[in-house]
Design brief:
The chain is α+β, with helices and mostly antiparallel strands. The protein has a domain at about 30-60. Helices cover about 20% and strands about 35% of the residues. The chain has a three-stranded antiparallel beta sheet, covered by helices on one side. The longest helix has 16 residues, at about 35-50. The termini are far apart. The relative contact order is 0.29.
Length: about 70
């Protein structure tokens, strides 16, 4: 069985009716980097009605097991 990893994907969505690109940063669990990118296209396209050519992926990083990116420090 394949081991799943966590990837942090950041990018932007540029639609014709937006004044500026909408930036995003999302954490995805996938077995490989290509699968994580595909999930981003699927999720962002479905959520924001964006076509694949309107979604630009700027960075894909493998998240460390020890890093907690979702928690906010107050």
């Amino acid at each position: 069985m394949s081991e799943s990893k966590r990837y942090i994907v950041s990018g932007e969505i540029m639609k014709p009716n937006f004044f500026a690109p909408m930036k995003f940063r999302k954490e995805i669990t996938a077995t490989k980097q290509a699968q994580a990118i595909e999930r981003i296209y699927t999720d962002m396209g479905s959520k924001h009605r964006a076509k694949r050519y309107e979604i630009r992926i700027l960075d894909v990083q493998e998240a460390d097991a020890s890093s907690e990116t979702d928690k906010k420090v107050e």
